[in-house]
Amino acid sequence: MSHRDSHDVVVVGAGASGLTAATALHAAGRDTVCLEARDRIGGRLLSASTSNPDRALDLGATWFWDGEERVHDLAARSGIKTFDQHLAGDTVVQDATGVRRLAGNLIDTPPRRFASGSQSLASALAAALPTDTVRLNTPVTAIHPDGRDGLDVHTSDQTLHADHVVLALPPALAVERIDFGDALPVELVHLARSTPVWMGAVVKVVALYPFAFWREQGLAGAAFSRTGPLQEIHDMSGPDGRPAALFGFAHARTARPGFDKAVTTQLAQLFGPAAATPDVLYAQNWSTERWTSPSTVQRLADYSLFGHPLYQRPTLHDRLHWASTETATEHAGHIEGALASGERAALAILAASSGANYPAPACLSASKKPTT
């Protein structure tokens, strides 16, 4: 038999945006639960462990840049070590005519990375929440106005009542997987169905090696290819070159039988025979992640819809709030955009419940620095 319980806020999704919203609302004294369909937190923050417990390989989001102060501050106050992306060395280019080497790193700008992997950001956010706040393996099946003073959030075995709901997942996924009845405005449904999912149509490949042999050849680990399957490649080694790894992106449509062999063959063409036999080869196909990508993900390509004004305004009598990196007006697609969207949703809920100008909880105050 199903049962119903009530909360101030239900957050749908325990990725970076959902956990940001949940921690801010909890810090402000709001009774908040966070429902996550997966058996883990982090969403597109996903890191594979290595033999060194302080080092990890990112299978999802990897970088942050100068001016992304929310990410910088979260890492700093959580004790997460960051380091500069390795840039030194030459670039390799591959096209129909073959492979050639160009002087200097022509691909990478100077981002920073997380020594323990980007998923450690999600762990840090979740650590600030009571242990029963995040409920894993709990997909939301429907959200409906309750006809009185809030929203009913349905899962397979329970109904939760909330004054406010934060949708912290890609909009296209939300409208495909969650039944809203006919409650959402038609133009909002059309927008959500049309909005791309960042990384949603991508396979991210990470190749782990015994050592960074390409650096000894004066290569940066940076490459781009017009023949594929990997279209661009970067060095993913740790801050001291260990663990040694390369990573690259391929379009999801190339992930056919024989994909792994095609990747290692390409890596050998670009970086030499040693690249043909990685210790481990990870191929994270985000298009097949049912809690990240809708069935239409490979057809969604209008990135101008990111940060659309309709996502900035709550709907369903101002009780349903959008929060994912796709909805951010700044740094959309980045971890920073995910944090910003979660922050925006939390502050909107706090302002609504207090009348206006609710003070930001301490966990958000550091993110009020100007960003570029």
UniProtKB/TrEMBL annotation:
Domain Amine oxidase: 115-350
One Pfam family it belongs to: NAD_binding_8
Highest rank taxon of the organism: Bacteria
Entry similarity comment: Belongs to the flavin monoamine oxidase family.
Protein name: FAD-dependent oxidoreductase
Organism: Streptomyces gibsoniae
